[in-house]
Amino acid sequence: MSSSGDARRFVVQRHRARSLHYDLRLELDGVLISWAVPKGPSLDPTVRRLAVRVGDHDLDHLAYEGVTGAATADGLGDTIVWDTGTWTGEADPVAALDRGRLHLELNGTKLRGGFVMIRTGDPAAERAPWLLWHRDDEHAEPGWDPEQHPRSIVSGRTNDEVAADAEGER
Ligand code: MN
Questions:
Q1: What is the pLDDT of residue 169?
Q2: 154-164, pLDDT tens digit by residue?
Q3: What integer best gives the mean pLDDT of the chain?
Q4: Max Cα-Cα span within the chain
Q5: Is pTM beyond 0.85 here?
Q6: Is 73 exposed, middle or buried (0-12, 13-18, 19+ CB in 10 A)?
Q7: 15 CA distance to ligand 1 centroid (A)?
Q8: Measured in angstroms, how far is the CA atom of residue 85 from the centroid of ligand 1?
Q9: Residue pair 141/112 in contact by the 8 Å Cβ criterion
Q10: Interval between CA 14 and ligand 1 midpoint (Å)
Q11: Which of 10, 18, 91, 132 could pair with 51 as two cysteines, CB 3.0-4.6 Å apart?
Q12: CA of 21 to the centre of ligand 1 (A)
């Protein structure tokens, strides 16, 4: 039986650390395969985004929203769950990742439709560069800008509001 139809979870977090980026995380074999996307994903099929592969994260990051004060390399700052949902991919996504060419279908609230991810740099590099783009399918939207959709999909808050709420709890 092909596993191509199996829906796994994904999350995209908007994370204001030392610099703003979006963390794209795909559930696969019990972990979250992760990329940092400095400019965020777009539905515009003409837009190619840099996506830097980073270390796998635990599944509890699927729902993480809040403020981290610890000055880890990437952990500092405020995070919202910018989008979440399920994804489907090829029959063997592990092989696709190894090959450096992944086709995926996202079924989120903001992000829907087909995306392509291609590794453009050294696969052995600790932070290998990939490119991410939306396919020109029925969910494509020319001109679509992630920064114009700034609220959490779970709490409705912006990063500023998450930061302010954490300040108020101190
Ligand atoms: Mn991050």
A1: 75
A2: 999 999 999 99
A3: 92
A4: 52
A5: yes
A6: exposed
A7: 5
A8: 19
A9: no
A10: 8
A11: 132
A12: 6
